[in-house]
Amino acid sequence: MSDTAEMQILVVDDARDIREPLGQYLKKQGYRVRLAASAAEARRAIEEARISLVVLDVMMPGEDGLSLCRWLVAQGGPPVILLTAMADETDRIVGLELGADDYVTKPFNPRELLARVRAVLRRAPPAAPVLDATPRRFAGWTHDPAARSLDHEDGRHAELTSGESRLLGLLLDAPRTVLDRSRLLDHMAGREAKAYDRAIDNQISRLRRKIEEDPKHPRLILTEWGGGYLLAADAEVVT
C-alpha cells in the first residue's frame, strides 16, 4: 500500500462544484478523501476519522474557515491549507497567524494544490515525542501539562494550546538554558510544528501574552538573538 493511501484528506467547502471535483482529483492521486460542506460537518469528520490534512475554504456561511482553523490549531488537529479569494489578502495573513500551514487562492490549479498538499504532509511529523506530564512551578506560575493550563499564585489562569503547552514544557526541561530553534522544532512534532523558524517565534509570542506582565518587554521568556530562547526562571516539580 502506498504512503498516500494511508493518508486521509478532509475537503471543507460549501460550494459543491469545488468540493466534489477536488475530492475526486485527490482520490485519483491515491489519497483517501472525506468531504464536508460546513464547519459543523468538518468537526464531526475530525472526531470520527483520522484526518491527515484539511483543505479548508475561508468563506463559508455560518462558522467560517478562520474560526474552524482556530479550533483545529487549539485542539492540536491536523495541518490546514486554506482556500482564499484572490483579493482577500487579510484572510491569508490572519489564517497564517492563526496557525494554518499554507494557502491557495481561488481560482486554483488542482496540480498546484496537490503540490502544496504533498509539501505540507512531507514536513508534518507523524507523532509527537512524549514529554514529562508532571506539573511544575516557575515564577509564581504552575504549568499542568495534562490539563494544558497555567495558574498563577495571584489567581490568574490561562489555557494553552497543545503546541504552547509542549513548548513551555521544553523550556521548563532546561531552565536558564538557551534552546535554539532547530532543537525546539525537533521536539515540537505534531500539529503545531512547521518546518520554519517563524512557527516557534509565533508560539513564543502567544506564550508571552499569557504569562508576561509586559509581553513587549519580556522578563521570563527571553530571546537570544541568532540563537533561540531562554526561560529566565527556576523550575521545580509540584509535589
TrEMBL record:
The keyword Transcription regulation applies. Residues 133-233 bind DNA. GO terms for molecular function: phosphorelay response regulator activity; transcription cis-regulatory region binding. Residues 133-233 form the OmpR/PhoB-type domain. Keywords: DNA-binding, Phosphoprotein, Transcription, Transcription regulation, Two-component regulatory system. GO terms for cellular component: cytosol; protein-DNA complex. GO terms for biological process: regulation of DNA-templated transcription. The keyword Phosphoprotein applies. This is Response regulator. It comes from Limimaricola litoreus. The lineage of its organism: Bacteria, Pseudomonadati, Pseudomonadota, Alphaproteobacteria, Rhodobacterales.
